[in-house]
Design the sequence.
């Protein structure tokens, strides 16, 4: 047990939890004012439902039978059984060389489980029933997040082949982004999209959310070192620089494409950079985070235009930012990984490691996207048949705030 | 009695209010409105998606006056709201049949 590591991870856990309200405001500012409470609630609600599910069964499905090189954990730790203060001989404790109480590790991982399904809510904005959303994210945690997290964080098959994902480029971002694409294909477009303007209702709220996300992301990425030392420090610096460079990348493309550098563009770019550096944070160094961030910002700015071309209504660009940003980071890690930064890492193409890591990264990305898309599509389809996942036309016109929650955000 | 209604540029509202006070009006009502006339709207861009916004923000000013004051009120609004650029707005004057002061029940000229 290490008190320094424990102190840092206590803080990192709180930082990551704060990202979910940050995400709520990031998204909430982008929807029309009649839907802002619906959006905030979908994010906050994840802190309720997902945390409870995690304690009961989520944790054990991810971290039970750690290192089995398989597809899912077992039920050894169901109901947080034996997940306590003392370091044990359990496989995940020894496999991850934990120096912090297992109960703190479980809490830290719980914050990841909470925010990942909440990310999907940005794509389904303005038209999904709250009841259907609640059921969807609960089922999604168990059927999609748990297996994919086991593949990577739980010593499953992706970990075993040697693909790298420091803090969840695949587990969190590509996973949520692919799920978002699947659900909106079942859900359909917002009425009036794309010919009817749907400008953001409160961009200052979005900027506030961006700041909270950036702040919390230091816990997300630097905390993923699970220790308070050099790797955590490098991850923090990488996180900072990637967000900064991605803001520049997005704004440069936007300025040339549409004539203005927008606040929403700056915020979106920063988030795209944070997404892209997530898999890389503890495995790269030097100026690599600037390259990764700048590329991610520029590519994501171009990617958000695809929804118009292909006609899918990814309302707040979860696919364009999280799926694409996560993919960019995962692939660029195959180029920029440097084992001198982290002894648990490997060398990428630019650091003398050849193309092996790049191939592994591609396999991990393809498997994550394919599995998440397929199972998410099936969950959404079944829910749609059984209870219907979309609000009525009248309810959509009136807005989610009053129809789903019987409240109004802005009362005069 | 007349109701004088004007739509003016929002940033000219303070000048209009000052000019109307100098003319000696007893009160005015102000509303934030949107609309279009000869002045076209503008374009907004969100993540690369361009929206044409046709409705331009204006402020609607309403003043009740007696018949003798009406021309002076109109002149005051014209001189204070004019920027000589497109989009300065419009003023229109309508006849008013009846005015009641709610607190006292006073009518018409006494209620102005």
Sequence:
């Amino acid at each position: 047990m290490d008190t320094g590591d424990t102190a840092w991870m206590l803080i990192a856990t709180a930082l990551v939890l704060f990202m979910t309200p940050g995400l709520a405001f990031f998204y909430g500012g982008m929807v029309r004012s009649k839907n802002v409470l619906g959006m905030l609630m979908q994010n906050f609600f994840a802190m309720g439902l997902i945390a409870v599910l995690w304690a009961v069964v989520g944790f054990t499905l991810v971290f039970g039978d750690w290192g089995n090189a398989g597809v899912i954990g077992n039920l050894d730790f169901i109901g947080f059984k034996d997940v306590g203060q003392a370091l044990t001989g359990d496989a995940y404790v020894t496999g991850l060389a934990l120096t912090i109480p297992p109960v703190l590790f479980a809490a830290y991982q719980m914050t990841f489980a909470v925010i990942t399904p909440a990310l999907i809510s940005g794509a389904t904005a303005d038209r999904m029933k709250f009841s259907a959303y609640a059921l969807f994210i609960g089922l999604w945690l168990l059927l999609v997040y748990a297996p994919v997290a086991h593949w990577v964080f739980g010593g499953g098959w992706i970990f075993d082949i040697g693909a790298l994902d420091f803090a969840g480029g695949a587990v969190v971002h590509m996973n949520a982004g692919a799920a978002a694409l699947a659900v909106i294909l079942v859900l359909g477009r917002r009425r009036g999209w794309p010919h009817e303007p749907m400008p953001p209702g409160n961009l200052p709220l979005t900027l506030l959310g961006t700041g909270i996300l950036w702040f919390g992301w230091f816990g997300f990425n630097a905390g993923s070192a699970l220790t308070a030392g050099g790797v955590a420090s490098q991850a923090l610096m990488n996180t900072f620089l990637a967000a900064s460079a991605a803001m520049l990348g997005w704004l440069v493309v936007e300025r040339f494409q549409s004539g203005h550098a927008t606040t929403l563009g700056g915020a979106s770019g920063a988030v795209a950079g944070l997404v892209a550096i997530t898999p890389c944070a503890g495995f790269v160094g030097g100026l690599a985070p600037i390259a990764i961030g700048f590329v991610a910002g520029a590519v994501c700015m171009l990617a958000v235009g695809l929804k118009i071309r292909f006609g899918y209504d990814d309302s707040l660009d979860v696919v364009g930012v999280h799926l694409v940003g996560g993919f960019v980071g995962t692939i660029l890690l195959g180029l920029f990984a440097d084992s001198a930064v982290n002894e648990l890492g490997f060398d990428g193409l630019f650091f003398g490691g050849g193309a092996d890591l790049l191939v592994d990264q591609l396999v991990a990305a393809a498997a994550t996207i394919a599995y998440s898309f397929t199972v998410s599509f099936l969950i959404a389809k079944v829910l749609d048949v059984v209870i219907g996942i979309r609000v009525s036309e009248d309810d959509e016109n009136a807005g989610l705030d009053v129809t789903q929650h019987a409240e109004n955000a802005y009362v005069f | 009695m007349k109701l004088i209604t004007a739509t003016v540029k929002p940033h000219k509202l303070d000048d209009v209010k000052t000019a109307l006070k100098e003319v000696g009006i007893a009160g005015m009502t102000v509303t934030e409105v949107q609309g279009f006339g000869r002045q076209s709207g503008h374009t907004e861009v969100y993540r690369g998606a361009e929206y044409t916004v046709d409705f331009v923000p204006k402020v609607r000013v309403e003043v009740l006056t007696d018949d003798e004051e009406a021309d002076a009120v109109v002149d005051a609004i014209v001189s204070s709201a004019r920027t000589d650029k497109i989009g300065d707005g419009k003023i229109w004057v309508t006849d008013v049949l009846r005015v009641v002061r709610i607190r006292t029940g006073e009518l018409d000229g006494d209620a102005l």
Remarks:
- Chain B has a mean pLDDT of 93.
- Residues 51 and 103 of chain B are 47 Å apart (CA to CA).
